[in-house]
Specification:
This protein is of the alpha/beta class. 35% of the residues lie in helices and 15% in strands.
Length: 150
């Protein structure tokens, strides 16, 4: 269900935490918040379109959700209003579709605001890691040399 790039990170959210607050969401929820990974990052390029199909299943009334859903930066395909309503719509569709597990990789504050803290882990790299957007070489290439660093 998940891309190997994120499998290890999703495991940071225990089954116990993912299933807390069953009164809010009657399915397991795991959310990775990317503080310094953009949708242009080559690490997510191969799974990026998973957000599009997820968004279509959520907002198209004719579509059913999969039993296990996984989306990477689905906010790329949503308006602000859709981001705010995503979880309410998923909650309504969950029972009829049999949704048991939802995993989202996002950087959207609007999406994140719908989740309990137990569901969330923040991904970031130390500032001295070349993969970090805050690394001096990344910033120099982006802003001084005008290179595409993704």
């Amino acid at each position: 269900m998940t891309d190997p790039v994120f499998a290890e990170e999703f495991e940071l959210i225990s089954d116990e935490d993912a299933n807390k607050h069953q009164d809010t969401y009657p399915f397991a929820v795991r959310v990775l918040v990317c503080k310094d990974i953009t949708p242009r990052d080559p690490r997510v390029e191969m799974v990026l379109d998973m957000g599009r199909g997820f968004t279509e299943r959520v907002f198209d009334p004719r579509e059913q959700l999969f039993k296990r859903e996984f989306a990477v930066f689905p906010e790329r395909f949503m308006s602000c209003i859709e981001q705010q309503s995503t979880m309410e719509i998923i909650k309504r569709k969950a029972a009829e579709s049999g949704l048991t597990d939802l995993r989202i990789v996002t950087s959207s504050p609007l999406l994140v605001s719908a989740f309990h803290k137990e569901y969330i882990r923040i991904l970031s790299h130390p500032k001295d890691d070349p993969r970090s957007m805050y690394h001096k070489d990344y910033l120099r290439a982006l802003f001084v040399e005008g290179k595409d660093v993704a």
